[in-house]
Amino acid sequence: MNVLIVGGTSGIGLQLGIELKAMGSRVFVTGRHVEKAQEHGLTPFILNIGRDYRDLRWRADYLVERLPTIDLYVHAAGFYQEGFINKLSEEEVLTAVNISLVAPVFILQRLMRKQGTLDGFIAITSTSATRAREKEPLYCSTKSALSMLAWTLSYDPRVRRILELKSLRRQRTRRSGAGGRRTESGCSPSPGLWRKYCRSGAAPSATEASSCNATPTRCLSRKMNENRSLTPPFPRAVLFYTSSPKR
Questions:
Q1: Is residue 145 part of a domain?
Q2: 37 belongs to a structural domain
Q3: What is the tally of structural domains in the chain?
Q4: CB 74 within 8 A of CB 12
Q5: Given this model, what pLDDT does residue 87 score?
Q6: Quick one: CA dihedral 90, 93, 96, 98, positive or negative?
Q7: Is residue 247 part of a domain?
């Protein structure tokens, strides 16, 4: 299986790439930490994503033209900025939108035009895609955009399987001044916790859930294979994994 992971030289993208390579896949990655990817036998490509979508357009052309037929595309790139909306710069806004929405759209367009079908697409998002947080207007909205891109693709019969992998962060409450209450994001205490949804809304059995207490990426790889047997409409699932709190 040929795998493309955008944002695959660090974090969950790198973890997934390492495990998929160990399972026999040929893994191509983009990201800033090229040496780290090469250490693990992954094949790096350059895809600098900035504020200019026109620059991103030709970079996406260059990338896809040089890749073999891709079976699985994972979009793991992210851009986290904390702050109220009036404190965010224009460059931060444009870069975040390009990383989380324009880049995956451009790459998906080019892959589909080149090869006609795609066996799987994985979007690495966050619970911030569906839970508003005070100082994350940009992060929440761009992760929500990536999430909805993945879910709408589940209606396209040319894309066989869709998975959304969400960083799971618990909300904890503390007292603030004048008796007020605030919520804070923290790391979930349950590293194996996940829930899977199909069109029917079915959740996994207790046996399935306990079998995913190894690593999130290994569980994810297993679920990608299991999803082949799901009944139409086209398979889609959500997998939650734990991550460190945002700094």
A1: yes
A2: yes
A3: 1
A4: no
A5: 84
A6: negative
A7: no
pLDDT band at 168 (very low <50, low <70, confident <90, very high): low
CATH number at residue 80: 3.40.50.720
The DSSP-derived string for the chain is: -EEEEET-SSHHHHHHHHHHHHTT-EEEEESS-HHHHHHTT-EEE-----S-HHHHHHHHHHHHHTS---SEEEE-------S-GGGS-HHHHHHHHIIIIIHHHHHHHHHHHHHS-EEEEEEEEEGGGTS--TT-HHHHHHHHHHHHHHHHHTT-TTEEEEEEEEEEEEEEEEE-GGG-EEEEEEE-S-TT------TT-PPPPHHHHHTT-S-HHHHHHHHHHHGGGPPSSPPEEEEEEE-PPP-
Which range marks the domain in which residue 130 is found?
Answer: 2-242
Structure tokens given for 115: 């090869």
Please determine, for residue 185, whether its predicted confidence score (pLDDT) is greater than 60: no
CA distance 161 to 151: 10
pTM of the model: 0.73
